């Protein structure tokens, strides 16, 4: 089934929002089948469009019951529309909101279907590379669907590994973080699946409950020998977990990717294939997942604050431009010609009662800067919401904050007020007297870099004073002191830049 035009679908309420755009629920008019409609503003930067094109390519080539179906894409009124299968049960991340999954048979059923999706992808020469609980969806029939291929990679027939660092920190395999010359293969997805299974049982992926993201990256990257990560996360301390489940996780968390189990081998593992439970029965497993959906719905009724639904409203811009451009061709006596909708938001009531037209406001020279700032703010709030689960009041507060900050993008003494404020705030947080607060706000690499700069200057001065009689030796010693680098410092520095560029939702 293919959808090639917006005329074939009817759009309803908004069901999601992220760095790429907005997702709406809709139906195909001819069949009444529900679909998810992702709308991407083509005015966003080229990187976003490239990532979306990757997702479309991967989706269009995948035909598996465990992967969200792709129905088509097209451009309409400056926006790219991507039509996909609508999965109405939410994500595993959502289903964990009321609490952890204590029934291992439920975890085994979910893991089995994800493994089947990964087996299909890997056999097709594809790596997902961003497998996490938010990307594992369930429908109300209890079926499992793998989605979000925005950072997936197609493996060339000439090589089987990638040399780029993408993913989400707590779910990333050591070889992905280190991004060594040999790159990483499809078994990086297996490591991420192990993190998802661990998250279902404990509520959070390994290390997330007590270690910050960048520090977690460093610790994971230092796990070079088989068994290091298992000791790091104290897997043996999961007393409530069965021996089969712990063994399954240990097979996923093998540091040597060559020795790590693949999807086909894990499907034969006792935990997945049925160790005294009925997880080989598809209907039984689906029933367990439907119980999770019911639990989440009951939790919503008691705890969650319901957000008012936002419905899709088509912009009048395109229609108005066509009428204004072809105005000389329009028959004003034709009753079928619909009215043109003008924006009257700039018209205000006049106390003087004159009939003169209001003055047209001058062009905002900072309009583009404000739009760019708005996109950055939206992506930041989306990231906080996905990690922390913001309430309605908190989201409204962020929206008001955005409006207030945008209003400060104005010049005073040839400098933009908001940016001056942010610059001085950064400087204050970088000072040693504010280090306690600075460590909670500033990126870890930033604070360490500045500390390193201070220590470097101090050591350089000391070397210069103590070796003033032999300036040649001083120069050599100073150069050596500056050239000493820890390889993990370089890894974390490059990761910080790569991660900030790649993680947008």
From TrEMBL:
Q: Name one GO molecular function term.
A: ATP binding
Q: Read off the SUPFAM superfamilies from this record.
A: Protein kinase-like (PK-like)
Q: Where is this region: Disordered?
A: 446-484
Catalytic EC class = transferase
Q: Which domain of life is it from?
A: Eukaryota
Record-listed ATP binding positions: 38
Q: Which UniProt keywords apply?
A: ATP-binding, Kinase, Nucleotide-binding, Serine/threonine-protein kinase, Transferase
A GO CC term attached to the entry: cytoplasm
Biological process according to GO: filamentous growth
Record's keyword annotation contains Ligase = no
Asked whether the UniProt record includes Transferase among its keywords, one would answer yes
Identification of the protein by name: non-specific serine/threonine protein kinase
UniProt record similarity statement: Belongs to the protein kinase superfamily. STE Ser/Thr protein kinase family. STE20 subfamily.
- Mark out the compositionally biased spans (Low complexity): 453-480
In this chain the Protein kinase domain maps to 9-272
Reaction(s) the record says it catalyses: L-seryl-[protein] + ATP = O-phospho-L-seryl-[protein] + ADP + H(+); L-threonyl-[protein] + ATP = O-phospho-L-threonyl-[protein] + ADP + H(+)
EC number(s) stated in the UniProt entry for this protein: 2.7.11.1
User: What organism is the protein native to?
Assistant: Candida metapsilosis
């Amino acid at each position: 089934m293919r959808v090639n035009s917006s005329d074939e679908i009817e759009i309803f309420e908004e069901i999601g929002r992220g760095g790429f755009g907005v997702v709406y629920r809709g139906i195909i008019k001819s069949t009444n089948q529900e679909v998810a409609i992702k709308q991407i503003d083509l005015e966003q930067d080229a990187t976003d469009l490239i990532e979306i094109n990757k997702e479309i390519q991967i989706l269009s080539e995948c035909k598996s019951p465990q992967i969200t179906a792709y129905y088509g894409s097209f451009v309409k009124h400056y926006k790219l529309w991507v039509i996909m299968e609508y999965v109405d049960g939410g994500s595993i991340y959502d289903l964990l909101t009321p609490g952890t999954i204590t029934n291992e048979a439920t975890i085994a059923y979910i893991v089995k279907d994800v493994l089947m999706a990964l087996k299909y992808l890997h056999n097709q020469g594809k790596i997902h590379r961003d497998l996490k609980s938010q990307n594992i969806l369930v429908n109300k029939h209890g079926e499992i669907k793998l989605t979000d291929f925005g950072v997936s990679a197609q493996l060339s027939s000439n090589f089987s590994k990638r040399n780029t660092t993408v993913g989400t920190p707590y779910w990333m395999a050591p070889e992905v973080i280190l991004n060594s010359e040999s790159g990483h293969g499809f078994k990086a997805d297996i490591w991420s699946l192990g993190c998802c299974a661990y998250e279902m049982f404990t509520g959070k992926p390994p290390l997330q409950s007590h270690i910050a993201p960048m520090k977690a990256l460093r610790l994971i990257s230092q796990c070079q020998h088989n068994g290091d990560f298992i000791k790091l996360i104290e897997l043996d301390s999961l007393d409530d977990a069965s021996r089969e489940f712990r063994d399954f996780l240990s097979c996923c968390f093998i540091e040597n990717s060559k020795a790590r189990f693949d999807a086909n081998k894990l499907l034969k593992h006792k935990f997945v294939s049925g160790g005294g439970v009925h997880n080989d029965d598809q209907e039984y497993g689906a029933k367990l997942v439907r119980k999770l959906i019911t639990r989440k719905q009951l939790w919503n009724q008691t705890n969650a604050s319901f957000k008012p639904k936002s419905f899709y409203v088509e912009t009048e811009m395109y229609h108005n431009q066509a009428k204004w451009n072809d105005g000389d061709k329009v028959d004003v006596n034709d009753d079928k010609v619909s009215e043109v909708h003008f924006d009257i938001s700039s018209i205000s009531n006049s106390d003087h009662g004159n009939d003169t037209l209001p003055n047209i406001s001058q062009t905002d020279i900072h309009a583009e800067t404000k739009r760019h700032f708005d996109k950055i703010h939206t992506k930041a709030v989306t990231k906080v919401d996905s990690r922390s689960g913001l309430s309605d009041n908190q989201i409204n507060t962020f929206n008001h904050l955005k409006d207030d900050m945008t209003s400060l993008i104005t010049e005073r003494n040839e400098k933009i007020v908001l940016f001056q404020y942010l610059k001085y705030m950064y400087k204050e947080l970088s000072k040693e007297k504010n280090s306690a607060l600075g460590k909670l706000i500033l990126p870890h690499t930033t604070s360490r870099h500045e500390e390193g700069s201070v220590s470097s200057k101090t050591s350089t001065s000391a070397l210069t004073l103590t070796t003033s009689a032999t300036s040649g030796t001083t120069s050599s010693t100073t150069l050596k002191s500056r050239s000493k680098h820890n390889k993990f410092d370089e890894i974390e520095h490059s990761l910080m830049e790569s991660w900030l560029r790649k993680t947008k939702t």
